[in-house]
Amino acid sequence: MxxxxxxxxxxxxxxxRGVHRVNARCWxxxxxxxxxxxxxxxxxxxxxxxxxxxxxxxxxxxNQTESGRYVVAVDESASRASGDDGSDDDAARVVGxxxxxxxxxxxxxxxxxxxxxxxxxxxxxxxxxxxGSRLLETVTAAIPARFDRLVLETFAENEVGQRFYQxxxxxxxxxxxxxxxxxxxxxxxxxxxLRD
Length: 196
Hints:
By secondary structure, this protein is an alpha+beta fold.
């Protein structure tokens, strides 16, 4: 299998189905020892078309308004159906995604002089192939120069994620509790300078 992939903004709601699948697979793989089964998503569950359209529209607006950057990693070696008919082939080609947000779009923990890494996931079958690094580089490169730091939150027990973030220059700067479902879980705030 070739590891050729492109990193670019999503081009269709069908690609957001791929984002949904990657996200669910990652939660199951990375958080199964942290979260109870009833909180973990089922990778076989399919979102409805309205949700897919809403997610695609938000990603598009985020990119167009320069209030963040949303990209997908797409396997260029995977087969693709002819035409852009929203086929499942488009979803199957998505192997990762990432997004940053700043200003009014950022989460509450993101300061005025910071941008937030909102999300980054790579399909577990593709971990270690450089996809996460390219996704992070792409969304970080789009952050305006007025921001000093990139910050993110993750579960304190997410060792795989923290190792990746630390390899990219992030350090734990705060510990706190985050809510998932009706429960609280230990989490950390990690940050890295954007001035390097």
